[in-house]
Protein 1
Amino acid sequence: MNEIIKFENVGFKYVTDDEAADNVVISDLSLSIGKGSFVAVLGHNGSGKSTLAKLSNAILVPQKGKVTVNGMDTADESNKDSIRRTVGMVFQNPDNQIVATIVEDDVAFGPENLGVDPDEIRKRVDSALKSVGMYEYKDHEPHKLSGGQKQRVAIAGIIAMQTECIVLDEPTAMLDPRGRKEVMKTIKHLNKDMGITVVFITHYMDEAVQADRVIVMDDGTVAFDGKPKEVFRNTDKLKAIGLDVPQVTELSCLLRKDGIDIRADILNEEEFIEAFSKIAEVSE
Ligand SMILES: Nc1ncnc2c1ncn2[C@@H]1O[C@H](COP(=O)(O)OP(=O)(O)OP(=O)(O)O)[C@@H](O)[C@H]1O
Ligand SMILES: [Mg+2]
């Protein structure tokens, strides 16, 4: 099996008091997350990203269709523990995820709950803290750390549970630019060096372009799905569904509209400078 998470024609709505309300949040959604992949999920506010995340590890179960994790149906109550051991979640607010008063105890909390042997927990906590670059803070009080450091501790808590996959729901949204960079670096390390599958929900385009695949959600279904270069060249369509594109991509698009022959798939400043200097050379 090459996929770790699979959605098959999934439909989901929140049950509210207002029965007449049309509150379908996910409609007929099918997608697979490949093992070892690094997938970014984008979409405007309310497009269903967090719901998608919660459906991925059985916090929510669909009313229609099926979600499976390593082949296990999330709707089957008896699979819940195994699913939570396979897919870990990191949320937006670092303060809501801290459960202990010392960093290493916080990281140990997950594996303790899984009933892992204390010697093994010790090893896992040390190695998880090292892999997020927070080992030297193991005796610190989490609430005194910066936002980026807190998120790295939260990520270490998931690593210590040895889940195969981490779903991160806007983990950088409340961080300053430095914290965002730290967390991005950590996420890439987990994926590239440790082989952990990453599903990374963000509203920052410059972060999404770093993934191998970008899924764009719109009204509970998939609007675009592909490599960052394929997805972001749809500048106008992305804007129409309430998303920005990276600034350099938009600038290239405007230049193209003005008749300047610049590539449509530019995603970062380096690529822009390279492409633009070629044009400048030609016109000299
Ligand atoms: N617990 C809930 N009860 C009822 N409706 C909900 C609940 N949670 C979310 N919704 C609604 O479901 C829709 C999708 O919400 P969701 O949180 O999945 O979107 P999102 O893409 O994560 O948005 P954001 O970018 O704001 O985080 C929204 O219309 C939201 O108001
Ligand atoms: Mg959300």
Protein 2
Amino acid sequence: MNTFDIIIIGSGPAGVSAAWPFVKSNKKVLMLDVGFGTKNKKKIRIKKDSSPKISAKEFSYVFRDFNEFYKIKTNNFSANGSLAKGGLSNAWSALTSTFSDEEFSSYPFSREKLLTHYISIGKRIGISGVKAGNLSPWIGDEYVTQRSLPIHPLTKLLLNKYESSKLKFSDFEFKLGKHNQAILSEQLNDRMPFDPKKISGFKDLGDSVYNAADELKNLMKNKNFNYLSDYFVNDVYEDENKTGVKALNIKNERKKKFHSKFLILAAGTLGSTKLAIQATNNYNKYFKIQNTPMFPFVLLFPTQNNRSKKYSVFSFWHLSYYLQLHELKANQRIFGHLMPTDGISSQELIKRIKLPRPISSIIGNFVWPKLLLGTCVFPGIFSNNRMILKSNDELEIIGDVSGDLDIFIKKTKSILTKIFRKFGAYLFVQNLKITPGEDFHLACTLPMKKNPKLMETDQNGRLYGKRKIYVVDGSVLSYLPAKSHTFTIMANSERISKVILKRL
Ligand SMILES: Cc1cc2nc3c(=O)[nH]c(=O)nc-3n(C[C@H](O)[C@H](O)[C@H](O)COP(=O)(O)OP(=O)(O)OC[C@H]3O[C@@H](n4cnc5c(N)ncnc54)[C@H](O)[C@@H]3O)c2cc1C
């Protein structure tokens, strides 16, 4: 029997970051993945109000079949997972931030412990951004390796107004600035800098926007790294000497077993959590799953009457902000980003204007370039979702938000409206009703704890009750702030794999 040192389930940012330390130390690694690629496009049914990225045909291979394979049933929840090579990083916006000291206060280790991993991941994947920028004290800048990408004219206008106004507020703090991104502004090894000509729809056909799938090419140059796609893992277990995985070959429908000394679950929060519930036999019990509740808005700049579309493609050049309400703690900041409409179809607006055509089209096409699309994101503690794995293998997720979120949404909307008005923009919200999961940030189902209990992990991501099964994706986050969390998942995954390496 072929026993590997380590099996990693999943090739997303978490799986790939876990793989490198083992590969470099010459350990025998097997990565198992379903691994849909761009050739596996499939028409998928989408909810009308979903993010345009979810319904974009260039990303259909990213989101296809996830709920069917995992037998997920939802109630007021959008379960957007991926079975693609590289996982959700095929479609992500590449915003990168570190967690602050306050955001680490619920973790069994400090920010200091993860800093070296943030820096090493930053060097490996390349991060463009600003050092000492407006948001740096909160999102960090130690890991920035390249200069910032250019700024879009409309976001530049807003940023200039914000910076020249030097506004201070007595009962809240507001900061607006450029965000760091895992997008190259300069060449890195054989990857070329961002080039708008390589953008098709929302997708970068080059490799300047970090996508974990692109790293597989480099991992596979190493003889000790084995990548097997077309395998859907549906069972994991351990005995005295080894760990095991049962997987279904999705092409020939045959089941196969694989063995290793240690096992890493990096199947994304929903996937890894389902496998962990099965492995620990916790059927028919409710567990919590966090997301970052979010509402979208638009900013209209009436003084930009003559503005027309400047770029024909999606620019990726966002601005971000945070809002600190005094009644909320420092680890409970509200976060959002603002993106230009260039490169996004004006149909997104036209279909929402409740007037007959062609009036709706005329208005929509005229107004669209004068808008920025915004999000307002709350930390995970404002979510209140439950999940349960039933005896028939169905995973049910029931979405909800915390009782006080409504108050904070109304307050935040009113504050943002006043702030952006001062910078020449009108804020509009179509619907304040939140659908949990639409934000794509799912986490904290198996939180790392100093003294873990059932459905928790120890400070190194080891599943409670198991000796050799580790989890490295968003499931193990001990706290979920509103800001982008994938960079922390990657840094933590590298940290955990170095701990396992010592055990090997
Ligand atoms: C539109 C969009 C925008 C986003 N923007 C940002 C952003 O700007 N910043 C940010 O921080 N985050 C962002 N995210 C979130 C980010 O993409 C995810 O947090 C990140 O990809 C999670 O990485 P992961 O490796 O844990 O899981 P995933 O990326 O979900 O990868 C899971 C992997 O596991 C494999 N897999 C799953 N189940 C099985 C199984 N049973 N058997 C075998 N293989 C399996 C899949 O094929 C895949 O390779 C965004 C997401 C989306 C969709």
